[in-house]
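Try this one yourself first.
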């Protein structure tokens, strides 16, 4: 549905208008990365280790994220007023999209489900919201709706998913989500998570800054074709997020059983994610032209080569998502921030060099190189993370698979 409805919306809007929408949403996502406060895995860890305090932990986290969401909304409005005050329609589109950080605060409840290894509830809730809003997008297309309508649907979709999770949370936990805040807990969480806040910001920078730089250095058409390819490339990123979220509590428990069990669990996770990502990358690379032609049509032909290059970032994104759990468990938040900061800075520098020469293709190459360096090579720089580099290398070279084949033969 994401493929079909997303492509239909892109076809309807056209590369230029779709580029304007993507430019505004990328700006919101960068600001919204602060609103999450980097609490995701940390809150799950707290609930797993202190299940009797789950209600307090969830309510405190929710309150913090609502406040940060409101602040993010105000910052986005100021930015859009500065950038788009002479294009009043785009300014209003930006204001509507700026509601996303506030709506995302409801997703705090998902942390409780992750801790209970019940992520299916969150997935079902978000899926229902997505299906309903996809139907609304189809109605909007058939009725000739403006860009503002699609922006409103985007914000409502996130809010609906959170509301559905809230209803399930009350039934499952017999608890209510409140604005109560435990000051000591809030202080503790923020002290621990501040490196992750900036890490999340840096992740969003090198995942979204290319769209903003294309908009500023080239034009909205370039942003539109690049964003079309990006949607098809990034649509697979939910897989490592869901898998790693489900694995996280069991990895925490594995650490209690000893280093051997702990690292073996991680190696299996890396192996699985590597083969999954490479399979996807190969399939998409050899069929990128056909995929773009079928889904987007002739007006997006330039997106085919962009997609064939960008899809390979999935390999390093998948491995990077898995290693993020390692940084949380080992209390290496500073390393997580450093890793993403290097990737973000490298991506910006490469964009400055490659976008003027190769336009959107240059942005795709920049993202691939920066992901390779931050999600893989970075681990080699520190003694504490070299074990990650070793496990990822074993996955990249299919060491375990080769060993099994040799043993069977």
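Now uncover the answer:
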């Amino acid at each position: 549905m994401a493929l079909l409805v997303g492509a239909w919306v892109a076809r309807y809007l056209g590369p230029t208008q779709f580029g304007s929408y993507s430019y505004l949403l990328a700006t919101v996502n960068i600001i919204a990365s602060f609103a999450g406060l980097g609490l995701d895995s940390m809150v799950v860890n707290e609930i797993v280790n202190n299940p009797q305090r789950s209600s307090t932990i969830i309510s405190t986290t929710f309150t913090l994220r609502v406040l940060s969401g409101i602040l993010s909304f105000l910052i986005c409005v100021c930015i859009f007023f500065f950038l788009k005050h002479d294009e009043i329609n785009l300014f209003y589109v930006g204001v509507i999209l700026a509601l996303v950080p506030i709506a995302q605060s409801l997703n705090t409840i998902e942390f409780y489900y992750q801790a209970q290894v019940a992520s299916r509830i969150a997935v079902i809730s978000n899926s229902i919201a997505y299906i309903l809003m996809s139907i609304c997008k189809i109605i909007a297309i058939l009725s000739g709706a403006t860009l503002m309508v699609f922006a409103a649907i985007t914000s409502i979709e996130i809010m609906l998913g959170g509301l559905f999770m809230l209803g399930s949370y009350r039934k499952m936990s017999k608890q209510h989500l409140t604005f109560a805040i435990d000051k000591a807990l809030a202080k503790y969480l923020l002290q621990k998570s501040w490196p992750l806040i900036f890490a999340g910001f840096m992740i969003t920078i090198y995942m979204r800054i290319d769209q903003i730089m294309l908009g500023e250095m080239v034009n909205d058409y370039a942003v539109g074709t690049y964003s079309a390819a990006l949607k098809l490339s990034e649509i697979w990123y939910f897989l490592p997020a869901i898998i790693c979220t489900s694995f996280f509590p069991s990895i925490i428990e594995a650490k209690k059983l000893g280093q051997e069990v702990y690292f073996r669990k991680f190696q299996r996770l890396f192996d699985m994610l590597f083969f999954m990502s490479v399979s996807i990358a190969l399939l998409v690379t050899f069929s990128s032209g056909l995929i773009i032609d079928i889904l987007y049509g002739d007006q997006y032909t330039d997106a085919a080569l962009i997609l064939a290059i960008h899809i390979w970032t999935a390999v390093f994104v998948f491995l990077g998502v898995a290693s993020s759990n390692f940084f949380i468990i080992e209390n290496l938040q500073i390393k997580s921030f450093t890793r993403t900061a290097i990737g973000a800075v490298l991506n910006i520098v490469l964009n400055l060099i490659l976008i003027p020469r190769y336009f959107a293709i240059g942005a795709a190459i920049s993202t691939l190189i920066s992901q390779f360096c931050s999600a893989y090579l970075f681990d080699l720089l520190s003694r504490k993370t070299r074990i990650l580099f070793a496990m990822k290398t074993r996955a990249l070279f299919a060491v375990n698979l080769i060993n099994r084949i040799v043993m069977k033969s």
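Discussion: The chain has two domains: 1-181, 221-409. Residues 259-295 form the longest helix (37 residues).
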